[in-house]
Amino acid sequence: MLKKIIKSKNGEGYVDMCVGVIVFVMILVIAINIFSFITLRIEMDRIADELLEAATYNGCFSGEFYRRDNDFTMDYFYYDINYGADEYFNSAYKRVQLGHVMWVEISVTTDIKGLGVFKIPVTLTVKRSGLSQRYWK
After folding, report:
1. Angle at Cα 120 formed by Cα 118 and Cα 123, nearest 5°?
2. How far apart are the C-alpha atoms of 30 and 11, rounded to whole Å?
3. What predicted TM-score, i.e. pTM, was given to this entire model?
4. Which of 89, 98, 85 lies closest to 57, judged by CA?
5. How many Å is the maximal CA-CA distance in the chain?
6. d(Cα 112, Cα 115) in Å, to the nearest integer?
7. 80, 108 in Cβ contact below 8 A?
């Protein structure tokens, strides 16, 4: 009787279907994570471009740059920001002379979702650079 149960293939289709569903759900979770990372990266690109535009137009990291940074933090999400220039005209005011390079780097740490109790942190980083458009006397 035990040989009959072992050789029986009655439950084989059920097991195949369960394995297929599990694989489909895992692929769906991976696709949703990739889509959310792409969306987050597009938003980070936009924020970095806007911040760099404010900094290069004014030729410094103050005033409008900090206002836009505050607005984006309130409207979107919290992000770490790092900014600077290759050479400052006046380092006390963080002014950058016309034609010198300025850069803005934004990073966000998030988790891969859908894995239950496991949390895998992922850090996305965007860096943009541009030239100062302001001449300081």
Report:
1. 160
2. 29
3. 0.78
4. 98
5. 98
6. 7
7. yes
Instruction: Name the token pair of 48.
Output: 């970095």
Query: Hey, what are 112's tokens?
Result: 């891969």
Token pair 């149960």 is found at 5
Token couple for 101 = 């390079």
Q: What is the pLDDT along the chain (137 residues), one digit of tens a residue?
A: 556 655 656 666 677 778 888 899 989 988 998 999 999 999 999 999 999 999 999 888 888 899 999 999 888 888 999 998 888 877 777 788 888 999 999 999 998 887 777 888 999 999 999 999 888 87
Alpha helices in the chain (DSSP H): 2-7, 12-58, 64-75
Q: Which two tokens stand for residue 28?
A: 């769906």
Q: How far is CA 94 from the centre of its chain?
A: 27
4 forms bridges with which residues in the sheet? none
Closest-CA residue to 121 (of 110, 113, 134): 110
Q: Which two tokens stand for residue 13?
A: 């289709």
pLDDT of residue 35: 94
